[in-house]
Amino acid sequence: MTDHQEINGAIETRVRVLTWNIWWRFGPWEQRRPAIAATLKKIDADVIALQEVWSDEATNQASELAAELGYHHVFAWSMDIKGFGFGNALLSRWPIKRHDSIALHGKKETGEGRVALFAEIDGPRGLIPAFSTHLNWKYEHSHIRQRQVTDLARFVDSKRPWSFPPVVCGDFNADPSSDEIRMLKGLTTCPVEGLFFHDAWSVAGGAGSGITWDNANLYVVTELGPDRRIDYVLVGRPQARGAGHIVDCKVTGNEPVEDVWPSDHHAVLAELRY
Predict the structure, then answer these.
(1) pTM
(2) Phi, psi of 19 (to 5 degrees)
């Protein structure tokens, strides 16, 4: 918990939300598996959005992690790679009341299957509408991602009404200055009029860079690309008594566990009034 100035009448309690791309079955995935679980246990977030979650006919990685953490979960398949599923998940300390998912634009054009996953989390102080997504990865696919965030925004809007603002998490594969992120933040034409999101890092990340694709990571440096901030916790307009107001944000999951990097991405952890 970080020190902060209280606002008269605002909610004082918090919910901790984490987003993390856990790199499917790439790299030394069997050695990374316990490192991912150990990192999640240490962070102890209330709501966890995961991307690049693998699945097979018997199980999926989210189910296994949820069982180990004692959490509830939902998983949405987006495509197959080498005979295994690839998708997004949401894990929650509290029960999940309902869930849904949609396919995003771009599979016909690029061959990449992408989805947005929704879970309505039945927390102790009210329902939390949470979303996990993962957009196309190529630099030159901004035009695809712009269509994807339009689909995403419409999907979020379809889940109204809410008393806690929607929390949209994921690997957007887009820098903060990109058109697709600016669309979601209301800095250019919004896909849904009146629906915009605050970027948790921009609001409460402090003086650091917020980099989540980091050449300090041994899995990243071999790609020979620049450091980037491409993973986000985005939160809608605060509701009554500041519900959903972002009070803290940090990059985490950014160090090895017993000499094993858990993923090629770092995670983002946001603390919201709840």
Answers:
(1) 0.96
(2) -120, 140
Q: Which residues, in sequence order, are CB contacts of 40 under 8 Å at separation 6+? A: 18, 48, 65, 69
Alpha-helix runs per DSSP H in 73-205: 107-110, 142-157, 179-185, 200-204
Is residue 161 reached through a cis peptide bond, with omega within 30 degrees of 0 on the bond before it?
yes
CA gap 102, 117 in Å, rounded: 7
> Which letter, b or e, does each residue of 174-205 get, where b requires 16 or more Cβ atoms within 10 Å of its Cβ?
bebebebbbbbbeeeebbbeebbbbbbbbebb
pLDDT digits (tens, 9 = 90+) for 136-164: 999 999 999 999 999 999 999 999 999 99
Separation of alpha carbons 88 and 52, rounded Å: 6
**In this structure, how many other beta carbons lie within 10 angstroms of the beta carbon of residue 248?**
19
Distance CA 255, CA 6 (A): 32
- Residue 8's pLDDT is 78
CA distance 218 to 264: 8
